[in-house]
Protein: F-box only protein 25
Organism: Canis lupus dingo
Amino acid sequence: MPFLGQDWRSPGWSWIKTEDGWKRCESWSRDLDRENNPCNVSHSIILNSDDEEIFSNEEQKYTSKKRKKDHFRNDTNTQCFYREKWIYVHKESTRERHGYCTLGEAFNRLDFSSAIQDIRRFTYVVKLLQLIAKSQLTSLSGVAQKNYFNILDKIVQKVLDDHQNPRLIKDLLQDLSSTLCILIRGVGKSVLVGNINIWICRLETILRWQQQLQNLQVTKQVNDGLTLSDLPLHMLNNILYRFSDGWDIVTLGQVTPTLSVLSEDRQLWKRLCQYHFAEQQFCRHLILSEKGHVEWKLMYFALQKHYPPREQYGDTLHFCRHCSILFWKDSGHPCTAADPDSCFMPVSPQHFIDLFKF
């Protein structure tokens, strides 16, 4: 028989008796599918004619909306999509707006699922996820946590499919697994949103992703056309000078003996050090060879351990100083300034985190 709660805050649930005991049965209305809702939630409709609930029109409308909201919250594979691709960043209550904007709310609203499909934004999103994993994971709400791991799942699957940027994802998963191990071991000492068993399952998922990336084998493509080895030396050298990451140069140098020689060029590593670090930092970590020459390659990796390298992204989020709105530049936002372009400011991943620190 159905059980209906008497608490005004909840309409109660319908329960059915099975061999394993009583289980909750959610009753959904088909009319909910035709409602204009910005969240595209896919769900199964469960109808039970024997347990029909009798409410007034107003109570029944409230019941349907609440059950749909609860179903959305319990669906771990669901991500909420918004029509607007921007968010107003406010840190205090005003007469027009109450409350403040949180990191989790911004993470839900800025459509990172679509951003990872754009090669210009992929590195930016990965770096942002890495910063959140290091220090801001516990500040995310329950829905934001689900979105975080759903986006991370899409990133891992994308890397496994197209074999691009595996090193970035390995670093992200390493930082995330370290953070989760600390949080799980110190449960009770810090605020951890969600059940401890959920976090343990997430840690097991991360370990499985790490194993899949470790076993990733890049298939050799058979192509009878022009290859990298057929290019002249000056063009190969020009390609190496376009890299901004030292590990990419080392990896490319392992392809052919010619690239190996070009990747050891002292001038190449000197330019890379000058691009990322200041001259004062060189003096503090100067490395000389036996002949008295500066070992620029060793200096680059030594400096990288002490100082953050210069960040470079194809596309970033932007912040409008006039409207206090965070948005993707391609999507735009309803700016009221006379010259909107002069108000736009690119936002680095670290700046994104700092915007929501109170």
Observations:
- The beta strands are 14-18, 21-25, 86-88, 317-320, 325-328, 344-347.
- The first strand starts at residue 14 and ends at 18.
- Confidence is low (pLDDT under 50) at residues 1-11, 27-56, 71-81.
